Amino acid sequence: MGGAAWAHNLMPSVAVGGMMSTTNDLAKYCIALNQAWKRQRHTSDAETQTLRRKQVFPDVDLLFNPLQAMGVQAMGVDEEANKSHAAGWATCTLPAVIGDIGANPELMKTQMPELGTGSAPVRLVWNQSRYHGTHGFVGLLPEYEAAVIVLSNTTTGDDMPDWVGQLLIQATLGNPYKNNYAFLAATSARNARQKYYELAGKVQQDRQTKGPERGL
């Protein structure tokens, strides 16, 4: 009994340790990407500088090129946002509306908020993940040599790491016009619950209460 209780008490620590290890590895990766950006920006070779100008990170260019238009820009609506993606990563110049890879745009009945309003233009490279039981957000600000990493090992009503990640980027940039991410998170979570209620209602409506009798 004592051994079983001891093993059970270790389980939360093991889970937390796994997340800390993953975050640590991601941090090292983000540092390496920002260093690659720095090498690109400070090269003395004019020809190399010209060739690399359209690349995001030259040392790992395979991950990020060719960049393809995404979101409203892909439909020719918004050229100024300059959003594009490759290999799961997306890039844009802030101020811009981000979060395209996550779940929140599907939950917001209005347009997603613009990030970076009032600040000088700055490059953002980000990645979002959403799987069964997990969400994640990684945002790189190469010109600031900064990165934001938000991981969640549970499924909330909305894409929480997206909102937290945008909040941290907003704080890093010191945006004069700040978005109320607590309100936005509450709105998207409420809309997510409404979707579940609607689904439950449809299931109940189509439910057959009287069917053919079958032997057990």
Structure description:
- This protein has 216 residues and is α+β, with helices and mostly antiparallel strands.
- The chain has one domain.
- It is built from seven helices and eight strands.
- The chain has a six-stranded antiparallel sheet with strand order 1-2-3-6-7-8, sandwiched between helices.
- The radius of gyration is 22 Å and the shape is elongated.
- This is Beta-lactamase-related domain-containing protein.
- InterPro entries: Beta-lactam/transpept-like.
Shape: elongated
Strand order of the largest sheet: 1-2-3-6-7-8
Number of helices: 7
Structural class: alpha+beta
Look at the structure and give the mean pLDDT.
75
In total, the number of domains comes to 1
Strand % is 15-25%
- Give the tally of β-strands: 8
The low-pLDDT segments are 1-14, 72-81
Helix share of residues?
Answer: 40-55%
How far apart lie the N and C ends?
Answer: 39 Å
Descriptive terms for the model:
7 helices, Beta-lactam/transpept-like, Beta-lactamase-related domain-containing protein, 216 residues, alpha+beta, elongated, six-stranded antiparallel sheet, two-stranded antiparallel ribbon
Q: Briefly, what is this?
A:
The chain has 216 residues and is α+β, with helices and mostly antiparallel strands. It has seven helices and eight strands; from the N terminus they run H-H-H-E-H-E-E-E-H-E-E-E-E-H-H. The chain has one domain (2-205).
Helices and strands in order:
Layout: H1 2-41, H2 46-52, H3 61-64, E1 68-69, H4 71-74, E2 84-86, E3 89-94, E4 96-97, H5 104-107, E5 114-115, E6 122-131, E7 134-141, E8 146-152, H6 160-173, H7 181-205
Antiparallel strand pairs: 1-2, 2-3, 3-6, 4-5, 6-7, 7-8
